[in-house]
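Figure 6 in text form: structure in, sequence out.
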């Protein structure tokens, strides 16, 4: 009888855990409404997923991490941020700012995600120079960057990479 009680207890614990595991699996696959996208590669489709801010409020689909970019290059993503305005900053590994820009987020309504697109033009570095793109919102309170996405890049002298 003790074995039956122990088995019943184990089965109840297992059944209690199953819904939690299923919720975690569904959440991992569904993401936050981005079609299951998160940082990293989607091995099944061969596509690269977006770079995200830690808050999840900004996602950048293009350029991708480690991509070689020319001047100008396009920045594409989606965001859910205050005043629907994203800022861009391109700098070298030595913290020299090469270019800055802004884009408006095309959100269907206040508080919803919307897409954005912008471009940066830069000059004055040797081909193959490591760079870093930052995409962020500007905090209204103090003007500091918020929801920052940092993407390492390779800067190339040829246009439009």
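Output sequence:
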């Amino acid at each position: 009888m003790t074995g039956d009680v122990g088995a019943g207890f184990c089965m109840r614990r297992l059944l209690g855990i199953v819904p939690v595991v299923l919720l975690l699996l569904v959440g991992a696959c569904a993401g936050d409404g981005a079609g299951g996208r998160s940082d990293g590669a989607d091995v099944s489709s061969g596509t690269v997923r977006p770079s995200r801010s830690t808050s999840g409020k900004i996602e950048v689909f293009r350029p991708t991490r480690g991509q070689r970019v020319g001047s100008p290059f396009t920045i594409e993503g989606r965001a859910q941020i205050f005043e629907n305005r994203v800022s861009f900053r391109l700098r070298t590994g030595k913290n020299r700012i090469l270019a800055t820009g802004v884009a408006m987020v095309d959100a269907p309504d206040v508080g919803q995600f919307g897409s954005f697109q912008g471009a940066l033009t830069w000059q004055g570095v040797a081909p193959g120079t490591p760079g870093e793109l930052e995409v962020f919102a500007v905090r209204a309170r103090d003007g500091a960057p918020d929801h920052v996405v940092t993407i390492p890049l390779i800067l190339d002298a040829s246009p439009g990479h």
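Caption detail: The domain at 50-155 is CATH 2.60.40.2550 (Immunoglobulin-like).
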